[in-house]
Amino acid sequence: MGNHIGEILRVTTFGESHGPGIGAVVDGCPAGLEISMDEIQKDLDRRKPGQSHITTQRKESDTVKILSGVFEGKSQGTPIALFIPNEDAKSADYDHLRETFRPSHADFTYQQKYGLRDYRGGGRSSARTTAAVVAAGAIAKMILKHEGIMIGAFVTQVGTIQSSVFNSLAASRNPAINLDGLLKISESNIVRCPDEESAARMIELIEQVRKAGDTIGGVVSCVVKHCPVGLGEPLFDKLQADLAKAIFSINAVHGFEYGSGFAGAAMRGSENNDPYLIEADRVKTKTNFSGGMQGGISNGMDIYFNVAFKPVATIVAAQESVNLSGESVEVKGRGRHDPCVVPRAVPIVEAMAAIILADHWLRNRAARM
Amino acid sequence: MGNHIGEILRVTTFGESHGPGIGAVVDGCPAGLEISMDEIQKDLDRRKPGQSHITTQRKESDTVKILSGVFEGKSQGTPIALFIPNEDAKSADYDHLRETFRPSHADFTYQQKYGLRDYRGGGRSSARTTAAVVAAGAIAKMILKHEGIMIGAFVTQVGTIQSSVFNSLAASRNPAINLDGLLKISESNIVRCPDEESAARMIELIEQVRKAGDTIGGVVSCVVKHCPVGLGEPLFDKLQADLAKAIFSINAVHGFEYGSGFAGAAMRGSENNDPYLIEADRVKTKTNFSGGMQGGISNGMDIYFNVAFKPVATIVAAQESVNLSGESVEVKGRGRHDPCVVPRAVPIVEAMAAIILADHWLRNRAARM
Amino acid sequence: MGNHIGEILRVTTFGESHGPGIGAVVDGCPAGLEISMDEIQKDLDRRKPGQSHITTQRKESDTVKILSGVFEGKSQGTPIALFIPNEDAKSADYDHLRETFRPSHADFTYQQKYGLRDYRGGGRSSARTTAAVVAAGAIAKMILKHEGIMIGAFVTQVGTIQSSVFNSLAASRNPAINLDGLLKISESNIVRCPDEESAARMIELIEQVRKAGDTIGGVVSCVVKHCPVGLGEPLFDKLQADLAKAIFSINAVHGFEYGSGFAGAAMRGSENNDPYLIEADRVKTKTNFSGGMQGGISNGMDIYFNVAFKPVATIVAAQESVNLSGESVEVKGRGRHDPCVVPRAVPIVEAMAAIILADHWLRNRAARM
Amino acid sequence: MGNHIGEILRVTTFGESHGPGIGAVVDGCPAGLEISMDEIQKDLDRRKPGQSHITTQRKESDTVKILSGVFEGKSQGTPIALFIPNEDAKSADYDHLRETFRPSHADFTYQQKYGLRDYRGGGRSSARTTAAVVAAGAIAKMILKHEGIMIGAFVTQVGTIQSSVFNSLAASRNPAINLDGLLKISESNIVRCPDEESAARMIELIEQVRKAGDTIGGVVSCVVKHCPVGLGEPLFDKLQADLAKAIFSINAVHGFEYGSGFAGAAMRGSENNDPYLIEADRVKTKTNFSGGMQGGISNGMDIYFNVAFKPVATIVAAQESVNLSGESVEVKGRGRHDPCVVPRAVPIVEAMAAIILADHWLRNRAARM
């Protein structure tokens, strides 16, 4: 009931913030893929807490174990089970939440839906569960890399500071997006912004917000390069539809747009249409307001999309709330939390996109006789 | 492969723009629901072409037939098959497109994916297929209505004209959204905008765009009232994730946001958080930046979201393109098309939302022992 | 909820015995397949009522219409919708069953499950719904034929009369099963038995049973030739598991066995094992007690299985029963029914097997990088 | 791709015979169920190797760990992950099989399907994977027990020795099957046969077969008592269809029949029909040739079915085979294997049946408005 994603490459995750650990079962990975533990770990390290002074100080090594599906370094066509033990769970921090609902968290909705809840660290609703997604996504990335498909994400907005890259993507024109170049910059700063000047301002803002005991939202942008033409299944499993679903399953995501996105609502067809041209014997589009997808199917151009994250719900200031007994109470943030989620969300967005693309790459094998 | 949506209430659609007709099979509708043909037809009429001078002039009565699943006026628990014959298909209008790809349409991607395509009116990629969605959605609405859940959508933006309602939703505070009031206005004007002053300006803009042989984008906003607490399945089938997927399967959609949405990226936690309060013995939130969903689960507050539609791709002006043989060609819009898709998109957005909500309402029955 | 089968090639059926008609939506048929209406109709004719004096006398032309998915004679990769109108529904024959449950029919269970039921001709529980399966299966057969895979079924038992073919299959040894030869005989007699002597006795028995107002059970055996190695997905979607599920969804089926089947329970490993040998550079097995499947995966040998059908539940003699009000009543068979279902079940068994095999043929495309 | 089963209660398994371990993720278990580790372990102990002198001597404690989904002793509505480490894997025993295919094992088909294989102990094709099924099934049993539904299986045939219980089930008449009584006997002897006299002969036969270095097949029969009316989803997810699929996913199963089964093929409608009667205000059937299911839906009577297991493929005698290079070779059984699989298969059959029944019990919640 909701804990898996994908049709052929099917990822099932499990685990809670303060239980024995979290994990994923990756079913449908084709046999014969070389599995690199290093690549999985590298992505987990990009997501893990405590990686810089602008992230939460919870300490998790996030060391993944492979429990099945890999033999002599290769995928066997059988399910690959991944497990990450929880190490630094400080459950006592959450004792005061046994009966209290934190505003804009999932405490209230879980309690009402299930009639009970694991209140420690948010239980299954904790963003900690995304580590399992990142591990599974790393395998999806290996499938894609094998085909030359490349995925990269970075931060283009924190609060009201928007990187110039945000708009250059939206108006993306040939020559195509220089993803390598953007990632080189974004991965060199702790906020993961592909433009250094904005990065500095974003870091400053996050520090200021953290000192105020507050939190701040942001935007992650993601680019897929060298995607073959033909991925996406009309009618309901359009590539953008499955990408959107996957992205909205990430904690705190409140918006998704691709290509011209919300800006496209204000545009005319004559501006927004992407004329075709032939370049080096390949059909390309002159502009890319379609964001690489037309009719739900990839057209071979760069895919790109923006993801809006709301500010983290845990803040230091006292807030009005209610408890299990239906009484008004006041809650204050405790536990260890991020002042801004987007730097750590970058590999999660990539992972989700990778799972969807690898799944559709496999699904597309059945398109023709 | 992609032509169904929903887990328990599962809708499968079929049909092409210029074939015998289009239809849907609604599986999983619980037995004993009274099925009103009038309600299905009423929604189809809201979507059908030719309903006003600002929509395409294709004439389709869009009369639906029920082929199965209803006996003595009631659902039987068996699949309800719905069929809408195509009547005014002018396939000859499309002969010139047999070998040519229209910019920002799905002609190129279908041809590349499948190695062939039904070029008449866009075939399966035509927005005509959404009539089947609207018919299926009408049944989902009957399920929801039976439970007191109400869904309504309206146009909040055309081009750069944004209704004041757009922002009032985003900042939505108790007392809750007056959906009845908004719909009363929106359904009384041909652009389906819930504020009369903006409606008049939007109609004027669409007329002007149409005369210029151009098209224009827009935004549809949707509200769900009286949704019970508890709908939505973590981890991947969060309510917002399934809503987003369903909405992105609609032709021309380029963006989706709920609650504070993209604006939330610029906000602080202290602003964006929704404090809880007790009102008439019910837990409510003071503000509703969560858009009625927390941790992927409905919290009982109004659900609302915005949907960005790009401008229709068919324009009169000549555009650069390519053909099947890989030669550069020029294409001009023929056939009958809408200058702006949002007025007719309103019931489609409602239908998609209804299918997802009814499905999750049924799924939620399995949440507890 | 239960009205579809298959993962990539996904068949959804709809319709009741006495409604407007029955149909199927075949999603996932790869693009570019030539669709022959004649082949669909030929299989429908093998299933249709009234084809001989040993079948029911209901008259249905069972003429299928294609509503979508085929253009210029070829599949488009989009859903193929098939519809067969009901013509000779004599609903008045069933008025007396509005409140009465026929023994060993589904009247009671449908009523209890759904709280209501379409009592006319059994509604959705009628074997008439298998016509939609046969139509969908004909498309699956075209996919398989394109790959050289051939499916044929025939009757090997009626009552206690068992054809010698039954045992020769079970002990099947190289040279492989001569399916063409068996079908040539079975399709030349009205009971569809591949040995003429048994056929004559079976026909006599069915006539005798019919005159007595009674019914009789039987066995259909099915053979798949030229199945490539590798179809079937461990762990749960073993090829035999999916075949069994599909076959048990046919009305009146009470048993399924493949390879050595129930007889294998009495055998020793040294008898039942199939030694490997090399023949014309291909790996074959010396015997075929595995029935062409090992570890849930086809091994390239002939697949064969037996299907037990119980006697048709409608008989002329008065039977004890109960009604909606919980009173004891007596029911007598009316309506038009078969004295023995197996001759008409032959194309249904083939259709179900074809759907599963075509689905697994497509699924297997994702097995390796 | 094939490693999950169930729609609402969805079990995904992973693991190989000689990897770190095997496990299962049980998604969709309703919240609030008390989870007993003892009950899980008890069923694992009934399946585990080395439990008597007629089973394999591999020593595995089969101690299960719960990795997620249970908090304060109760299910949380989140996925329950179960893990069983492999302890006594003697991989060196299998070195000689790196390049050789054992007759009637899955070595050849895995190698051909995937292009590689984990040859150690059969890898994923090993019956060891059924331990994960038993653990998951134990949770399904807890759901059913909570509703008063009871499942029990036992051995009714080994080789040609058939227990009298086999036939008494087939002719099952009111008063209903005394499952408690049968289980009391079957669980008291090492072959798990519900009649002591047959049990003694079966044990003797298995010992004799083992000494001969051979193996023998058998039949497990399973009974479900107190199943409510209404479980099963027409058309394709009939209760018997889903049971059959689940059962055929068990290693070595070659036949499944329910109710009158294959014997029903020889019967007349007048014999095989189950007349209805009223007993203590409940509708019952006088006989139970329907095996508790009519039209794919449970009718409230006892469900029972028989499962045929072929003899274990590993035998001591030399057998003709081939190797990876396509050369003829001779193989002899090594490793530790069971002479007869049915005593240990009893809890596996129960587990599979429990998963299907619990899933359908949840699915049935959506049958009516």
Q: What is the CATH T-level topology of chain A?
A: Chorismate synthase, AroC fold
- Report the sheet with the most strands of chain A, covering strand number, pairing sense and barrel closure: 5 strands, antiparallel
Number of helices of chain A: 10
**Low-pLDDT windows of residues of chain A:** none
- Molecular shape of chain A: globular
Brief descriptors of the model:
homotetramer; 369 residues; alpha+beta; Chorismate synthase, AroC fold; 5-stranded antiparallel beta sheet; 10 helices; 21% strand; globular
Describe this structure in words.
The structure is a homotetramer. Chain A has one domain (about 5-365): Chorismate synthase, AroC fold (4-Layer Sandwich). The longest helix of chain A has 22 residues, at about 340-365. Chain A is globular, with a radius of gyration of 21 Å. Chain A is about 30% helix and about 20% strand. The first copy, chain A, has helices at about 35-45, 105-115, 130-145, 165-170, 180-185, 195-210, 240-250, 260-265, 270, 340-365; strands at about 5, 10-15, 20-25, 65, 70, 75, 80-85, 150-160, 160, 220-225, 255-260, 275-280, 280-285, 295, 295-300, 305-310, 320, 330. Chain A has ten helices and 18 strands. In chain A, the strands form six sheets. A five-stranded antiparallel sheet of chain A has the order 1-2-3-7-4, with helices on one face. Chain A has a five-stranded antiparallel sheet with strand order 9-8-10-16-11, with helices on both faces. In chain A, helix 1 (about 35-45) crosses helix 10 (about 340-365).
